[in-house]
């Protein structure tokens, strides 16, 4: 594995905060907002700065962004009022106007995907490919460096949905994590050309964590009137692994026939490639995809440690699997790995490094359902 010491890489001396919530969706949102008030307020301030800095590209002000985000709200409220309640709770608990929280959770939509910032890498291996027979999933979350300090872990016990453990940051609904029914979700941004006003992607992804069966999880990614789509890498404790490549109107379901799955930020299925916007801008995504695929398949018997080693890889730095912010980059094109996590679905654990995993240690969280 290639090693590079990258200057100016933040080191975190503490684990990401753990926030335990329970009750109705409004109550859980309020508990998140109160416990993470500083992080939520900071992430809204960061989003405003980002939109201001990108004005020449987006021709969008914060007030304009709020107007755009409101167009998505009726679709979210009609299909998933409970998750709109969570956002209302986050707003209430953090003393931030709901409209601002709505912009955060519809950011990709209101900026028409001009922010090619999310460069996540996701992968999974089933029990046939691990030394201890466990099912493992790994994800590097890449986003603007200013939001790195706003990362936290949520352990949730909703009144009427499965308990779950998830990573999030600032005022975003949780979506990368796993639930008590043995279903894990990792999401990667993709860039479909058929986006429309509808249910924001983050609301769609949040709903997946409430699934009790893998077919239900897949179905939730394909909900009617979705605004666009992610790639949802879905992993079940049985060892079934799927990538659901989604756009506003199309989808394809990929299955890990050989027990390995990797996904980054471009579509893999030939039908989905036809709706990809600006594929020539996604070259580094392809480099990470092939690199991670090769590293994953080099090992027949994986462990948490072997997946963590892949997460630290620096080939094609700074646009590597372990992604680094290099000073002087375009405000719309500077991101870094703000956390890296490995989920052991069999033992219901999440191991998370806060910041770049090449410089930060992993901390372990359990789902006690």
Describe this structure in words.
The protein is α+β, with helices and mostly antiparallel strands. The protein is 32% helix and 23% strand. It has a domain of 254 residues: Penicillin V Acylase, Chain A (4-Layer Sandwich), CATH 3.60.60. It is built from twelve helices and 14 strands. The model has no long low-confidence stretch (mean pLDDT 94).
Which helices and strands appear, and what pairs or packs with what?
Elements: E1 18-23, H1 25-35, H2 37-53, H3 55-58, H4 62-79, H5 81-94, H6 98-105, H7 107-110, E2 121-125, E3 136-143, E4 151-158, E5 164-169, E6 176-179, E7 183-189, H8 201-208, H9 214-221, E8 230-236, E9 241-246, E10 251-255, E11 260-263, H10 270-273, H11 283-297, H12 304-311, E12 336-344, E13 349-354, E14 362-366
Parallel strand pairs: 1-4
Antiparallel strand pairs: 2-3, 2-11, 3-12, 4-5, 5-6, 6-7, 7-8, 8-9, 9-10, 12-13, 13-14
Helix pairs in contact: 1-5, 4-5, 4-6, 5-6, 8-9
């Amino acid at each position: 594995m290639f090693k590079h010491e990258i200057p100016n890489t933040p080191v975190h001396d503490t684990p990401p905060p753990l926030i335990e919530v329970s009750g109705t969706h409004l109550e859980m949102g309020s508990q998140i907002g109160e416990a993470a008030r500083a992080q939520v307020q900071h992430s809204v301030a960061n989003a405003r700065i980002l939109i201001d800095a990108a004005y020449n590209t987006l021709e969008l002000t914060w007030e304009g962004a709020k107007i755009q985000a409101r167009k998505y709200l009726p679709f979210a409220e009609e299909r998933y009022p409970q998750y709109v309640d969570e956002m209302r709770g986050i707003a209430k608990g953090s003393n931030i106007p709901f409209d601002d929280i709505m912009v955060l959770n519809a950011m990709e939509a209101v900026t028409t995907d001009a922010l090619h910032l999310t460069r996540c890498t996701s992968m999974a291996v089933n029990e046939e490919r691990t030394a201890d027979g466990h099912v493992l999933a790994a994800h590097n979350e890449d986003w603007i460096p200013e939001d790195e300090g706003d990362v936290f872990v949520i352990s949730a016990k909703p009144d009427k949905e499965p308990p779950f453990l998830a990573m999030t940051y600032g005022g975003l609904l949780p979506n990368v994590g796993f639930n008590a029914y043995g279903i894990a979700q990792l999401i990667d941004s993709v860039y479909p050309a058929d986006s429309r006003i509808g249910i924001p992607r983050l609301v769609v992804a949040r709903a997946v964590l409430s699934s009790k069966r893998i077919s239900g999880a897949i179905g939730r990614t394909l909900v009617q009137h979705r605004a666009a789509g992610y790639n949802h890498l879905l992993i079940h404790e049985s060892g079934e692994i799927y990538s659901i490549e989604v756009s506003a109107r199309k989808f394809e379901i990929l299955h890990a026939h050989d027990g390995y799955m990797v996904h980054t930020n471009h579509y893999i299925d030939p039908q989905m490639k036809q709706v990809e916007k600006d594929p020539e801008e996604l070259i580094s995504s392809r480099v990470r995809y092939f690199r991670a695929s090769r590293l994953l398949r080099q090992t027949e018997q994986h462990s948490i440690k072997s997946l963590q080693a892949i997460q630290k890889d620096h080939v094609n730095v700074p646009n590597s699997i372990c992604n680094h912010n290099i000073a002087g980059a375009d405000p719309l094109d500077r991101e870094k790995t703000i956390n890296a996590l490995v989920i052991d679905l069999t033992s219901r654990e999440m191991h998370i490094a806060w910041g770049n995993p090449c410089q930060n240690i992993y901390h372990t969280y359990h789902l006690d359902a």
